[in-house]
Design brief:
This protein has 230 residues and is of the alpha/beta class. The protein has 7 helices and 10 strands.
């Protein structure tokens, strides 16, 4: 089943202070099927992250269509979806692993992972149990669970991001450099859980610089250069 179909996706940024337009990605098109993993590689600044952020609607595309076959609304163009629809899709169906941690103030690491489950109606006790399992899986030491993660190292923050996104087992997972700042042992854990998600029919789109990590995980790889696929 086709879960995502992108056609003609283009995103630019206008720098008002300089009166200049920066072209990020242009005329991007591909399809993603259920349980498939597509990887995108390319140098920094090639426009890879803009594709993920347009799908997640952190960025509003300049043009193009992003048709997602959702459970809530059926086929929906994410480029045209309203904020209410996007909030529901992000909450229940789409997971996003960013390079940088974004946590509500005065929220502990455990509470951050639990929040992903509580907002979709999982009971508090079950949410806590599953959050602890995920934190333990990603080898975040138990003494860190009740600490505010602003003090965490880069690798610890990324592991917390992974735990928060993956604890829900979303239908569509967007991964922006999910292995950056991670040691080799943790990379193996990430690879294993991505394989599990694929077996559970989660569809994934990921950006990587670690080409060795991608071997055996990605079904297709697109090489991006100067805003378009090479």
């Amino acid at each position: 089943m086709e879960i995502l179909a992108i056609e003609g996706l283009t995103k630019n940024f206008y720098l008002h202070n300089l009166g200049k337009t920066i072209k990020s990605c242009r005329d991007i098109g591909f399809t993603l099927h259920e349980g498939e993993f597509i990887g995108i590689v390319g140098r920094s600044g090639a426009g890879k992250s803009s594709i993920l952020k347009c799908i997640n609607r952190t960025y509003l595309p300049l043009q193009g269509t992003i048709v997602y076959n959702s459970q809530a609304f059926g086929p929906i163009d994410l480029a045209q979806a309203d904020e209410r629809q996007m909030l529901q899709l992000r909450r229940y169906e789409i997971g996003y692993v960013a390079q940088f941690l974004n946590v509500m103030p005065r929220t502990t690491a455990k509470e951050h992972v639990m929040s992903a489950l509580l907002e979709i109606g999982v009971a508090a006790g079950e949410a806590e149990r599953r959050a602890k399992e995920m934190l333990d899986y990603f080898r975040l030491q138990e003494e860190l669970w009740d600490i505010y993660p602003q003090t965490f190292s880069g690798g610890e923050r990324l592991r917390l991001n992974l735990a928060h996104a993956m604890v829900k087992r979303p239908r569509l997972m967007l991964l922006d450099e999910p292995t950056a700042s991670l040691d080799n042992k943790t990379k193996v854990l990430v690879k294993d859980i991505l394989q599990q998600l694929k077996e559970e029919k989660t569809s994934m789109l990921g950006i990587f610089h670690d080409l060795e990590f991608m071997e055996g995980v990605c079904d297709k790889v697109f090489n991006m250069s100067e805003g378009s696929f090479a």
